[in-house]
Design a protein that fits this description.
Layout: H1 2-22, E1 24-33, E2 43-47, E3 54-55, E4 61-68, E5 70-77, E6 84-90, E7 95-97, E8 100-102, E9 112-115, E10 126-134, E11 142-148, E12 158-159, E13 170-175, E14 183-192, E15 195-198, E16 202-205, E17 214-221, E18 227-236, E19 244-250, E20 260-263, E21 270-277, E22 284-292, E23 297-306
Parallel strand pairs: 1-7, 1-8
Antiparallel strand pairs: 1-4, 2-3, 2-5, 5-6, 9-10, 10-13, 11-12, 11-14, 14-15, 14-16, 17-18, 18-21, 19-20, 19-22, 22-23
C-alpha cells in the first residue's frame, strides 16, 4: 500500500516538473552590421520585460532564458546604427533563434589633414606643424605625424600620437632621436573608426652634428692712440646658428675674464671687422677674435698691438 502511494506521488511530481519545464523557452541570436561584421556591445531589450537589457558579446551573441510561452518584442540598438525590432513567438520548451542586421545611420567619413614644411632642423630633431581641416563624422581617435627614411610613411612607422580631443586647429609635432645628415619623409595623419587619412608628403634632411664654431684672427690695422680696426673670419658655425662674434681686448696676454669685448654688427659664417675704441695711448694690447654658437665660444689666435703715443 505504501509503495503504491509513493509511486503515485512521484508520478505527480514528475508530471508537474515536466509541465512546468515545458512552459520555459529561450530566445537567442547574433547581431551583425549591413556588411556582415559582428556588432558587439549592442543593447538588446525584450518586451514584455523579463529581465534587464543585455549587450551582445564579442561574437555579437545574445540570449534570453527562462521565458514563458508567448509573444515577445526584441529591440536591438547601438550608437551609429538604426535600431531594429522584431516580434518573436516562444512555444513551450522551444529555443528560438532570431538574428539582427543593423544599418548604419550615417555614412562615416575619414578626417582630412594637411602639413607644413619642417622647421627648427638640428642634427637629431625637427619641428613640424599640421592642421586638421575636416574632422569627418566620427570621433578622431588619434592624430600626429609619422615619419621614415623611406617615402610614404604610415602609422606603422615612427609617429607622434595625440589622443586628446581633436579640433579644427593647428598642432605641432617634435620629432627627436633622428640620425644626423639623414633624409626623412613625413606625413600628418588622423584616424577615426572609418580609417586613417594622410597629408601630402614632405621631406627634410637633418644637419651634421653640432660642434664649436671656428674663427681666425686675420689682421689689426689703422692703429691710433685710442683705436684700431680688427678683422677676422668665421670659417664654420659648427652646425648651429651664430649667436655673437667680435673681438676681445686686454692689456694682459690670454686674458678672457677681464678682457673688454667688442661685438660685430653682423653674425654668420664669413669675414667681419670691428673698430675697437677707448684704448689708452702708448699701451700694448692683446686681441683675439671670438665667435659663439649654441655649443659655446671659440677664439682665434692672439695678436698684440701698441697704440700710438
Amino acid at each position: 500500500m505504501k509503495k503504491s502511494i509513493l509511486k503515485i506521488i512521484l508520478s505527480v511530481l514528475f508530471s508537474l516538473i515536466l509541465f512546468g519545464c515545458s512552459k520555459i523557452g529561450t530566445v537567442q541570436g547574433i547581431v551583425k552590421d549591413e556588411y556582415g561584421n559582428i556588432v558587439e556591445n549592442a543593447t538588446v531589450k525584450i518586451s514584455p520585460s523579463v529581465s534587464d537589457s543585455l549587450v551582445t558579446n564579442s561574437k555579437g551573441e545574445f540570449e534570453f532564458v527562462d521565458l514563458q510561452a508567448g509573444v515577445y518584442q526584441i529591440t536591438v540598438s547601438k550608437d551609429g546604427f538604426f535600431s531594429s525590432t522584431k516580434d518573436v513567438t516562444v512555444e513551450k520548451g522551444q529555443i528560438v533563434n532570431v538574428d539582427f542586421i543593423l544599418n548604419y545611420d550615417v555614412f562615416v567619413t575619414i578626417p582630412a589633414i594637411s602639413t607644413e614644411d619642417a622647421t627648427d632642423i638640428t642634427s637629431t630633431s625637427v619641428k613640424i606643424s599640421g592642421f586638421i581641416t575636416d574632422l569627418g563624422n566620427a570621433t578622431v581617435t588619434g592624430y600626429g605625424h609619422c615619419w621614415s627614411t623611406l617615402p610614404e610613411p604610415t602609422i606603422d612607422d615612427e609617429k607622434t600620437d595625440f589622443s586628446f580631443s581633436a579640433e579644427l586647429d593647428t598642432f605641432t609635432s617634435y620629432l627627436s632621436n633622428l640620425d644626423p645628415v639623414t633624409t626623412y619623409y613625413s606625413r600628418a595623419y588622423a584616424t577615426n573608426s572609418e580609417g586613417t587619412s594622410y597629408s601630402t608628403e614632405i621631406s627634410f634632411t637633418t644637419n651634421a652634428p653640432e660642434d664649436f664654431p671656428a674663427v681666425t684672427t686675420n689682421l689689426v690695422s689703422n692703429v691710433s692712440s685710442s683705436s684700431a680696426i680688427c678683422s677676422a673670419e668665421v670659417t664654420t658655425d659648427g652646425g648651429c646658428s651664430i649667436i655673437s662674434m667680435g673681438f676681445c681686448c686686454s692689456t694682459i696676454p690670454n686674458d678672457l675674464f677681464n678682457a673688454t669685448y667688442f661685438s660685430a654688427s653682423n653674425t654668420g659664417v664669413g669675414n667681419y671687422s670691428v673698430t675697437i675704441s677707448g684704448l689708452s695711448s702708448n699701451t700694448t694690447y692683446y686681441i683675439k677674435a671670438y665667435v659663439q654658437n649654441c655649443i659655446g665660444y671659440s677664439y682665434g689666435s692672439e695678436i698684440s698691438i701698441t697704440t700710438l703715443p
